[in-house]
Amino acid sequence: MSKQIQEAYIVAATRTPVGKAPKGVFRNTRPDDMLAHVLKAVVAQAPGIDVNRIDDAIIGCAMPEGEQGMNVARIGLLLAGLPNTIAAQTINRFCSSGLQAVALAADQIRLGNAD
Q: Where are the alpha helices (DSSP H) in the chain?
C-alpha cells in the first residue's frame, strides 16, 4: 500500500525579537510571555484558521530549562489564551531549534499525521 505525500505550506510566520542579553530592552520579559505575544501574532496573521482545530504546536527554544520552565510551548499556548486542548512540544536544538520545529511540523503534515 502506497500513500501519497501531502504538500505542507507555511501560512504564517513570526519569531521573538533578538536583543542584547543581559542588558537589552527585553531583559525583564519572561520567555513564555514573549512566546504568547508571538502565538497571538501568528493567529492574527491567519484569520481563516479555527484555533479549535489546531492539534499540536511545535515550538523551537534553545535551552528551555531556564526560567520559562521545561515546556515553554505549552505555557506559551496557555498564556496566549489558546485552547488547552492543543498539544505542545518544545524542541531544543540550540541554534537550530526553530528550523527543527518547522521541519518536524512539515514532516508530520507531509506524512499525513497532521493537517
A: 31-45, 72-79, 97-110
Query: How many whole angstroms separate alpha carbon 16 and alpha carbon 114?
Result: 25
Res 21: pLDDT: 76
Which one-letter amino acid corresponds to residue 109?
I
Number of domains in the chain: 1
Q: Residue 78: what residue type?
A: L
- Specify the pLDDT at position 1: 59
Phi and psi based region of residue 112 (left: phi greater than 0; alpha: psi -120 to 50; beta: remaining) = left
CATH number of the structural domain spanning residue 53 = 3.40.47.10
Cell 535551552, residue located: 63
Cell reading at 111: 506524512
pLDDT tens figures, 32-68: 999 999 999 999 999 999 999 999 999 999 888 876 6
With respect to residue 55, please indicate whether it lies within any of the assigned structural domains: yes
